[in-house]
Fold this sequence. Notes:
Blueprint: E1 2-5, E2 11-13, H1 27-39, E3 43-46, H2 55-60, E4 68-71, E5 74-76, H3 79-89, H4 112-116
Antiparallel strand pairs: 1-2, 1-3, 2-4, 4-5
Helix pairs in contact: 1-3
Amino acid sequence: xxxxxxxxxxxxxxxxxxxxxxxxxxxxxxxxxxxxxxxxxxxxxxxxxxxxxxxxxxxxxxxxxxxxxxxxxxxxxxxxxxxxxxxxxxxxxxxxxxxxxxxxxxxxxxxxxxxxxxxxxxxxxxx
Length: 127
């Protein structure tokens, strides 16, 4: 999925679904969508089949899987840095501030996904 701002110059690339057409279920990509939606950014969505990654996308961020952002010709690939970048560029009064008031709150749940992503359910072995 390629997301372009209404101005058309900058974009966000996120993972497409298994059919190559629908929006995928990548939690990092969904996080960027939530930020853009909560800020009220108007954007266009174009799906990209990552199994047949287009050459221009490969050239833009070689060896990197979405999500990533391009802005003024610069590619940003770290989701946390992208979130900080969006908060820095999309500021009040036009866009709401989403960052917590206390910066240390950013790291409060930083490892929650890593800890629970491998959880497969309760043990079903009985003795």
